[in-house]
Amino acid sequence: MARSRPRVWLVAACAAVLLWASVAQLVAVGRLLLQFGPAGDADPSPPPSVLPPPRIYKSNGYLKISCNGGLNQMRSEICDMVAVARLLNLTMVVPELDKRSFWADQSNFGDIFDVRHFIDSLRDEVHIIKQLPERLGPSDSDIIEMPPVSWSDEKYYLHQILPLFSKYSAIHFNKTDARLANNGISTELQLLRCRVNFHALKFTPQIEGLGNKLVHKLRARGSFVALHLRYEMDMLAFSGCNHGLSLEEAEELKKMRYAYPWWRDKEIDSQAKRSQGLCPLTPEETSLVLKALGFQKDSLIYIAAGEIYGGDRRLEPLRSAFPKLVRKEMLLDSEVLRQFQNHSSQMAALDFIVSTASDVFIPTFDGNMAKLVEGHRRFLGFRRSVVLDRRKLVELLDLYTNKTISWDNFASSVQEAHKSRVAQPSCRRKLENRPKEEDYFYANPHECLVNSSLCS
């Protein structure tokens, strides 16, 4: 019996440590929720009139960043870089948005996000300025321009980036996509990433106002589904997915892929990608899947997407199955929308607001918008998001269209495959040295959710 006492004591000690860690993380998440409340709903409450006290620290230098990609990719990049600035005690410059990619959107940060709110709401973490001091010009030798290494942890920034400030006054990160790891980051920085994402990156009053107007118009008609139908020209060209397209359409997309040098993959086996579940569902496939999942003909469905490739002709099968299919262009006056046209990121912001507020969210491809909306909906109380298993769906769709299985067999199989595909409290799946394949932080930021203690 005497021998067992040390073992019992060790078990008790370990249990106490685990309990303390869980309580500490719950307190941290609770502080995030109490101080800033849940993420903004369709009708966000006004920001508090009392600003947090500024954090006083000796700045090691300036961090300038140029984001790349679409709106939601840039959103995650900004969150990451605020965390990096905090880690390294840097002064951050208001981010530059991508103006050179496929979308050619000339929007500045202030055209999409509330700059004053961004600066003020983070003043107790990072000092943010609107531009570099005049003495640091674009050709100044006191500035180094570079991309940080993808999926890096805190050690990389502390040991590889911070020492550069002994030689340079400022660093310009000219690419910022996926430059901070999903996992292995301190809880404090993970919570800061969430704080930036859910609270500091607030849309401008103009975008919020119009987004809320869309939500009100939809809710006046009843409950609604936000369908992120990622069947746009850029996605099809980039992915090389041409299932259901004509030879002329496939060739048009291939030419576009070759026209953009930063799209590295040129020759793509469309059939192989589709069978692996790596292609967005077509509108025809989407209509069958929605019906199989039990959505009725009178379901109100909002298409949260840009211009669908093939236009109304391609949308016809989906509209025939669900006549109450709507887009923002059908709900708002053309004059009201005119200020946002030719600004794809501002239009995407409207879709983001509607998607986070919808009764159900269903993306047909797991791109950046799908992942960030899923994460926001988790933070808002695990609102229903259906994450489609495209690999399984392609297999079932082909069996059904080839008349190998009946409709009843197809529908029951689709429902069975998606019983556990609704976003719910869970821990991110981690894969050692395979960050692209593991669960994305922004799709399930479990450190910032009420179930955080389960994932300690």
From TrEMBL:
CDD domains: O-FucT_plant (cd11299)
InterPro entries linked: FucosylTrfase_pln, GDP-Fuc_O-FucTrfase
Recorded superkingdom: Eukaryota
Cellular localisation: Membrane
Signal peptide stretch: 1-24
GO terms under cellular component: membrane
Pathway membership, UniProt: Glycan metabolism
Membrane topology: Single-pass type II membrane protein
UniProt record, GO biological process: fucose metabolic process
Entry keywords, A to Z: Carbohydrate metabolism, Fucose metabolism, Glycoprotein, Glycosyltransferase, Membrane, Signal, Signal-anchor, Transferase, Transmembrane, Transmembrane helix
GO function terms (MF aspect): glycosyltransferase activity
Pfam families according to UniProt: O-FucT
Similarity comment: family membership: Belongs to the glycosyltransferase GT106 family.
UniProt name for this protein: O-fucosyltransferase family protein
Organism, as annotated: Urochloa decumbens
Lineage: Eukaryota, Viridiplantae, Streptophyta, Embryophyta, Tracheophyta
